[in-house]
Automatic annotation (TrEMBL), chain A:
This is Membrane protein. It holds the Pfam family DUF5808. Coiled coil: none annotated. It comes from Paenibacillus azoreducens. Keywords: Membrane, Transmembrane, Transmembrane helix. Residues 322-347 form the DUF5808 domain. One of its GO terms (biological process) is response to toxic substance. InterPro entries: DUF5808. The chain crosses the membrane at residues 6-26, 54-73, 85-105, 141-160, 185-205, 235-253, 265-287, 341-363.
From TrEMBL, chain B:
Keywords: DNA-binding, Transcription, Transcription regulation. Residues 11-79 form the HTH gntR-type domain. GO terms for molecular function: DNA binding; DNA-binding transcription factor activity. PANTHER family: GNTR-FAMILY TRANSCRIPTIONAL REGULATOR, HTH-TYPE TRANSCRIPTIONAL REPRESSOR YTRA. InterPro entries: Tscrpt_reg_HTH_GntR, WH-like_DNA-bd_sf, WH_DNA-bd_sf. This is GntR family transcriptional regulator.
Length: 365, 133
């Protein structure tokens, strides 16, 4: 059983590590380590070297960490394993934050050394028809997810008597039960409540992808708008598929409460689904790039930069711009979207998601 | 239609926006009855205050280029564009006068000036195409 755990650790963390390593190659060509640059600067030998260096340093770090983690995983007992895994995740987070911060600060100095006239540009472009194209899938698709959750709940209620008196709630890495609860309506229906909360969260994310600020390149706006539309549509589809997998997984967990399936199968399924979601996100990141810049790319455009709004990007990743009414914007580092923390709504959204996640954990207990 | 704005230009954003929309209608890129983005959505896409967009839209509405409906939102005026009114002729003369005066001061002859007007007229009528791709 420990081999399943080790294997899924590798399957889950290698894509994450690789996406972190190649991150600077996936961002927009107008951003380098969280600092706005011109495309000309982005392709300069100096920044090319910096990206390579970033990839090497982070690559070596994550390889060492993963090796150390696998080693302890195979050596130590039950208690040590969960400890090794969580400290590995923690070290990966700290390591990547430290590397990013170091390169952000260095990039700031490098930018100051470039002649100022290579950076200055205030041109922006917006497409008035952008949101009338298909940029996300409809939220109606989530009716399918809700139907599965409600059917599961109805079946659980109909066959409530057949659930055993004590329900297995948590499993160790060998598939043995580490935590169980007395049978109650709340415990039996907990997976369904989690499903509904998650469906609401994913529907919200889908809206966010739709609403998020249009960021297209003024040098080739038509191409860039098309790329961005495909980028959003693909992530929106990914969202729905990932949500479906999590809903199915939770229904499977509920099924397992009733039938007490073989522990090997339970382990495999509950580790396989998250792995699949991570691999899908990995493939999508590598094929689309931030803002869709890797989709149907032709020759890079002219040398102008995006609007220089570095001062609104605290440490290159926290967006705080009171002058911008946009709530959702593209991330500077990595792939996806973030919020404008100068808007009170951004805090409410963050709090809302945190509460939803905490509630899911609470009901899942 | 792609609206291009220069955030560092001396021309205020609302005026740039008005000019771009009128040019879009002139070139046929914006069709009568076509939807324009809502004030809120356009403000966040451009990254400017809601009032800036509101001002541009209100002025365009006053002049009759667009209509603002409570439910349907903002649309390019489907009932046709405003005609040539005496008010417009007066405004146009006021705007052209200093331009022509400067051309004369700089020694540009009438033929060249008319040539420029003609080429710009053709340019706008046929729409600007994306130059780089």
């Amino acid at each position: 059983m420990i081999w399943i755990l080790a294997l899924t650790t590798v399957v889950m963390f290698i894509p994450i590590a690789i996406s972190l390593v190649v991150m600077p190659f996936l961002t927009r060509e107008t951003v380098s380590f969280g600092i706005s640059v011109s495309e000309e600067m982005y392709h300069s030998p100096q920044l090319r070297r910096m990206r390579k260096q970033y990839a090497w340093i982070s690559g070596i770090l994550y390889t060492l960490l993963l090796t150390a983690c696998l080693f302890t995983l195979l050596q130590t007992d039950e208690g040590g394993q969960s400890y090794a895994l969580s400290s590995y995740i923690l070290m990966m987070v700290i390591g990547s934050a430290a590397i990013n911060l170091a390169f952000y600060l260095r990039m700031k100095k490098v930018k100051a050394s470039f002649p100022p006239n290579t950076i200055k540009s205030g041109k922006i472009a917006v497409d008035t028809r952008f949101r009338s194209h298909k940029i996300t899938i409809s939220n109606r698709w989530f009716a399918l997810h809700a139907a599965i959750a409600l059917t599961s709940a109805a079946l659980a209620l109909a066959y409530y008597d057949e659930f055993p008196a004590t329900l297995a709630m948590k499993f160790g890495s060998h598939g043995e039960i580490t935590h169980s609860a007395a049978k109650s309506l709340q415990a039996v229906l907990a997976p369904n409540l989690t499903q509904l909360a998650l469906i609401a969260l994913f529907m919200f994310l889908n809206r966010m992808i739709h609403k998020s600020k249009q960021q297209i390149n003024p040098d080739h706006p038509e191409l860039s708008a098309r790329q961005n539309a495909v980028f959003r549509l693909r992530w929106s589809m990914f969202n729905a598929v990932a949500c479906m997998m999590i809903v199915l997984l939770l229904s499977f967990i509920q099924l397992n409460m009733r039938f007490q399936l073989q522990s090997g199968i339970v382990m495999l399924v509950s580790l396989l689904f998250p792995s699949l979601i991570i691999i899908m996100a990995f493939v999508l990141s590598l094929t689309t790039g931030q803002g869709g810049r890797l989709i149907n790319r032709t020759s890079p455009g002219g040398g102008t930069a995006a609007v220089d709004d570095d001062r609104y990007w605290k440490l290159g990743f926290v967006y705080y711009n009171p002058n911008d009414p946009a709530l959702f914007v593209e991330k500077r580092m990595g792939i996806g979207w973030t919020v404008n923390f100068a808007r009170p709504a951004a805090w409410m959204v963050t709090a809302g998601i945190l509460i939803a996640v905490l509630a899911a954990i609470f009901f899942g207990k | 239609m792609i609206i291009r704005l220069d955030m560092q230009s001396d021309i205020p954003i609302y005026a740039q926006l008005m000019n771009q929309i009128i040019e879009g209608i002139a070139s046929g890129e914006l069709k009568p009855g076509e939807d324009l983005p809502s004030v809120r959505s356009l403000a966040s896409d451009i990254g400017v205050n809601l009032h800036t967009i509101n001002k541009a839209y209100t002025l365009l509405k006053q002049e009759g280029f667009i209509q603002i409906h409570r439910q349907k939102g903002v649309v390019v005026n489907p009932d046709g564009m405003p005609g040539i009114t005496p008010d417009y002729e007066q405004k146009q003369a006021e705007q052209l006068r200093p331009l022509i005066a400067e051309a004369i001061c700089r020694g540009m002859n009438k033929g060249r000036l008319l040539q420029i007007v003609e080429s710009l007229y053709e340019d706008i009528l046929h729409g600007r195409k994306e130059t780089t791709s």
